[in-house]
Amino acid sequence: MAASDGEKSLIVSFGEMLIDFVPTVSGVSLADAPGFIKAPGGAPANVAIAISRLGGRAAFVGKLGDDEFGQMLAGILKQNGVSAEGINFDTGARTALAFVTLRSDGEREFMFYRNPSADMLLRPDELNLDLIRSAKVFHYGSISLIVEPCRSAHLKAMEVAKEAGALLSYDPNLRLPLWPSKEEAQKQILSIWDKAEVIKVSDEELMFLTGSDKVDDETALSLWHSNLKLLLVTLGDKGCRYYTKSFRGSVDPFHVNAVDTTGAGDSYVGALLCKIVDDRAVLEDEPRLREVLRYANACGAITTTKKGAIPALPTEAEVQSLLKGN
């Protein structure tokens, strides 16, 4: 049974939050950019804010630097209605930064400053286990698997959430420049693959993880495992494909004027989790699941129409407007 509005179930998002520095001009290299605008980001944090903005209940678990940027990021979570009870501050390390190049087609390239940044230093003993245990859905990426001690904190949080009955949701969010090698990235991303019940990958991540040059059903299903309830492959401006134990299919995209793809996948995931947190049966009901994925596609599409991730994440009213207009 769905919870009433007053008691929406909690979705906890685990991992990194950082500041993207985005050039004031699109389509130039970092060296040629005349200036940069601060844009808070980090996929798990974006997902938490996406959920809250759509009327869901979200918390973020991670570590920030005890610096002005870290305090700013914690403030942004709170302003957006996301619980910050799971945030730790590190006095010895800085909040992570990323310089992002926006190519003229809206796609991105990254240069990261993390040596080490606070998010990498989260320890298992710093986790707010009560908060994690109260999650109905526990969502995470793979950047938190790259180095210790954060890797151990990630594995512990996942285990605690699972034991408490949470649905585990995984979006690997591949950022190759952060990994020591391609091989290590592939190995570690797949090391926790069989734990998640909902997995979302992009077409590029699908090819990277399988070594295939095709984005087809056979390639996607090579990633299927017995614990999985839903596997999603997002296809950028071509919509998405879905796979469950009983059915599979694709959902068409919404055509919009994309200016910046940052956060589109996070918006999509947030929308999906919002819709399934109190209604897991939708994962076994194809017509209803298709409606949920159409909603998620709409959220992703709207997010590409503005610069930056968090400012572009849609409200329920904006999503309904796009759904009704199509």
UniProtKB/TrEMBL annotation:
Gene3D superfamilies: 3.40.1190.20. The keyword Lipid metabolism does not apply. The keyword Transferase applies. Coiled coil: none annotated. Pathway: Glycan biosynthesis; starch biosynthesis. InterPro entries: Carboh/pur_kinase_PfkB_CS, PfkB_Carbo_kinase, PfkB_dom, Ribo/fructo_kinase, Ribokinase-like. It catalyses: D-fructose + ATP = D-fructose 6-phosphate + ADP + H(+). Keywords: ATP-binding, Carbohydrate metabolism, Kinase, Nucleotide-binding, Transferase. Its EC number is 2.7.1.4. Pfam families: PfkB. PROSITE patterns: PFKB_KINASES_1 (PS00583), PFKB_KINASES_2 (PS00584). Residues 9-315 form the Carbohydrate kinase PfkB domain. It is an enzyme of class 2 (transferase). It comes from the Eukaryota. Belongs to the carbohydrate kinase PfkB family. May play an important role in maintaining the flux of carbon towards starch formation. PANTHER family: FRUCTOKINASE-4-RELATED, HEXOKINASE FAMILY MEMBER. This is fructokinase. It comes from Camelina sativa. The gene is LOC104788191.
